[in-house]
Amino acid sequence: MRKLFNLALGIVTSIGGFVEVGSISTSVQAGAEFGFSLLWAVAAATIFLTTLAEMAGRVAAVSKRSMAAAVRERFGFHFQVVPLGAEFIIDTLLLTAELGGAAIAVKMLTGIGFQWWVFPLGVVAWLVLWFGNFTVIEDGVGLLGIVTLSFVVAAWRLHPDVGPIARGFVPSIPHHDLTRYAFLVVSIVGATVSPYLLNFYASGAIQEKWTQQDLWINRLTAWCGMGFGSVVAMGCLVTAAIVFGPQHLKVDTYEQAAQMFVPVYGRWAVTLFALSLGIGCFGAAVEIALNAGYVLGQAFGWTWGIDKKRRDVSRFVTAFSVVLLLGAGIATIGLDPLRVTLISVALTVVIMPLVVLPFLVLMNEEEYVGTHTSGPLGNALLATLTLLGALMALVVIPLEIFGG
Amino acid sequence: MDVVRDVLDQSVIDRNGREMGRVDGILIEQQPNQPVHLTAVLIGPAALGDRLHPAVGRAVRRIEKSFGVDENRPARVAFADIDEIETKIRLRLTISETAVAAVEQRLRSWLLRLPGSR
Description:
The complex is a heterodimer of chains A (404) and B (118). With 404 residues, chain A is mainly alpha-helical. Chain A has helices spanning 2-18, 21-34, 39-63, 67-110, 115-131, 134-144, 150-157, 162-168, 178-192, 195-207, 215-244, 254-258, 262-265, 269-300, 314-332, 337-362, 366-369, 376-403. Chain A has a single domain, classed as Amino acid/polyamine transporter I, CATH 1.20.1740.10. Chain A is 79% helix and 0% strand. The longest helix of chain A has 44 residues, at 67-110. The radius of gyration of chain A is 20 Å and the shape is globular. Chain B has 118 residues and is α+β, with helices and mostly antiparallel strands. Chain B is built from four helices and seven strands; from the N terminus they run αββββααβββα. In chain B, the strands form two sheets. A four-stranded mixed sheet of chain B has the order 2-1-7-6, with no helix packed on it. In chain B, strands 3-4-5 form a three-stranded antiparallel sheet. Chain B is globular, with a radius of gyration of 16 Å.
């Protein structure tokens, strides 16, 4: 019974935790500029994410190691320093973007400039980590995130035609702006398959003491939680497509994006959008900072865990505090959060092979997954997709930045 | 035993099962006409830095020195003090008997000053 409850909680919190600054901004832009035709990218990215998360959970349940620990032990520090450094930079950028997104949400609610909110929000995030425990952070954040279902409700209430939506799940070549289309595909993949999510998921599994008997829980939590979670991102894309699509609008700010709720929620539109954006981003900021503590703790072999007494895990606490300070500091400079988001999610795809390929090696070794190895076909497919994605990102990012 | 595969980069726990860190470096010794002999393992970011580049190691030592936690670091644990080498490396010592504890104690003393510390 308790297992079933935990399973349900795990799924609900994954849905609530799915949407954050990256998925909202890429979905809104994709919908506004290309209608439903990028829905396939959201679906494909979700399958990619779920496959990797299930693998990360499997390694955690069988070997009691997270990705960061397993990669250090299997490949050594010389290898790990490269992906670790790249991930650290991207996660800090993403943390900056999440705090910026949350600050813009507060600005929408209060009318006071967003730069004023970044640092206070960073402090609140730190207080949550300082005083909170695993249940408060992991489940509380996910449950609050249920407000993001307002994207799905909005899409539903706009009564979209089923035909065009179904066609959106079939990959197609657009008639205009091919570069922009490709850039958005890359961004959607990067926003969905965030490395921090994978390690965060595995660290949760370790703290909940999953064993080989829990592999079915892992499979269900990953597929149902993240699968339904992606429905929220799709709801966002569909709403943006219906509201902004006919005007061929390019959405450059979150304030503009909030207008997509007006036809459905009327005078509550901005409030509801701000709450969805704010809670989604704030939750992600807490998770990214916490994950930085996890990754550093695991890579360097410190005692770590959010349920432990803070005095017993002082290196871990210091790590997440410093990362949070760094993210809030950069965000306070006043970089455009939307731009930081798009750049960091696109860069994520560039570093993806560094994260995924070593992981695929581990998935075939008895020491890490016992008899539960992955099949060669799936491995080859994942490796090919990862490399293709990185190549595509390397081509389209410069085109997007310098061409536009 | 393959020292690089089974010892280097593996997790180190103390006598009480507390995670101390990882084997960041190893010290080996060779006498003439004798096989190579593992004398000690090193734990600490300076040893890790040395592995990347001596300049990185020096930079880490400077940082540790500026916080006054550079004494006897990186921590050197004699091979005789290793109890067993399984998936983790268990020592016969406790963490406070090694120089690993210095950074942790310094950070803890700061954290304990914060409100709501536990």
